[in-house]
Amino acid sequence: MAHVWKALHGEVTERLGAASEGERTVFAAAVAERLLRAHEQLPAAEQRAYTLGQRGLLDAVWAGALGDRAAFRTVKHGLGTYYLSEHCHNDGPDGSDDADESAAAAVLYAALCHLHGCTDFAVFASGRALEAIDEVAQDDDDFADDPDELRAEDVRRQLRDLDLIADHAAELRHARFGLAAERTAELQTALRRPLSLADDLG
After folding, report:
1. Number of domains within the chain
2. Residue 120: inside a domain
3. What DSSP string describes 33-80?
4. For residues 116 and 24, is the Cβ–Cβ distance under 8 A?
5. What digits encode the pLDDT tens for the residues 171-193?
6. Is 158 part of a structural domain of the chain?
7. Which helix (H) or strand (E) holds 23?
8. Which of 29, 108, 186, 201 is 20 to 30 A removed from 194 (C-alpha atoms)?
9. Is residue 67 one of the residues assigned to a domain?
């Protein structure tokens, strides 16, 4: 099954390369949103304070990607805070690993995608969803599902995300420069709500 999810992920990467900066940011935000919601639903003892603290940054990424120009400042400050903190370091395993937790890392990649628009950041966010599957498989002794099949399912979901996002490509291409407030609200309903669902086929 490994060849299946890897081939599908190659398609995700190719489509992200052809997408606009705005589409990539919405995609990265969707991946980060699902990971963060999953983390927020963990028992309190398994949650990380740093990861939970990324909620405001992710909300700002969504707002900016869907047309709230003022959110750019919040995203910029959020990333600046990260860069100036102990969580951004070159100490390897001797330093903090909080920002390397999958949900937290995906939020940071989504924020970077909003600021810079690079394909790589959206692809990195995509990859964190796949790494999260590995982490669950390693940490859960009762994990019985096939990780390769779960990866394939996640990548298929990412492809469906891209299909939905493409329906709004014309607006998203310029959304970071601002849209009317009512249109931003409509995009929150049309995009953020369905893209945030853990199960979009249920």
Report:
1. 1
2. yes
3. HHHHHHHHTS-GGG--HHHHTTHHHHHHHHHHHTT-TTHHHHHHHHHH
4. no
5. 999 999 999 999 999 999 999 99
6. yes
7. helix 21-40
8. 108
9. yes
- Rounded to 10°, the helix 119-139/147-166 angle is 150
Distance CA 102, CA 154 (A): 14
Q: How confident is the model at residue 139 (pLDDT cuts 50, 70, 90)?
A: low
Judge if pTM exceeds 0.85: yes
Q: Which two tokens stand for residue 148?
A: 């390769």
C-alpha 25/C-alpha 66 separation (Å) is 9
| Residue 90, token pair as written in the block | 């070159």
4, 27, 124, 130, 153 from 149: Cα distances, Å: 8, 22, 20, 11, 6
DSSP tag of 90: S
What phi and psi values does residue 176 have, to the nearest 5 degrees? Answer: -65, -20
Question: What pLDDT shows up at residue 3?
Answer: 81
pLDDT of 19 > 60? The answer is yes
